[in-house]
Amino acid sequence: MKVEVFGKILDLKIPLECLQAVYKPKEVKPLKNVEKVVKERLRNPIKSDSIQDLAKKGKKVVVIVDTWHRMTPVYQILPSILDEILMCGVEKDDILIVMAHGVHASLTEENMIQKKLSRKVYSRFKVFEHTRFDKNVKFDFVGFSVLVTLYG
After folding, report:
1. pTM of the model
2. Model confidence over 84-122: pLDDT tens digits?
3. Residue 98: is it exposed, middle or buried by C-beta count within 10 angstroms (0-12/13-18/19+)?
4. How far apart are CA 50 and CA 56, in angstroms?
5. Sign of CA dihedral 53, 70, 117, 144
């Protein structure tokens, strides 16, 4: 069976008795204007308060960004999110971007810029890398999620 993984074709030999199912993602057309769609969703979210209702002058904002193992195009989405937060009156110094690596390895500064954030975002905002095993960061146990993943 040939399977595409991250743009590479792998030829897998799986015995039929071991194969339960093959799931393929639904084909989705790329957005023509990512910035416009992100801003529209922030201003008119589904079952949530809008960004204007949540972000206010004097508030502190943390934006959590997924690990580099995920294919999320953060560099396309994040600038629009940050612009909207700033337009709501939040000061630039009150915004922190947390790169949530969890148990994955950290990125070099250049890879962080190229693979996730963009140079513009990285140079303008405070960025903190969270790794579960950082001995300099103390975590408090706060419980388990409904999916039984560990918080804290």
Report:
1. 0.71
2. 999 999 999 999 998 887 777 777 788 777 778 888 999
3. middle
4. 11
5. positive
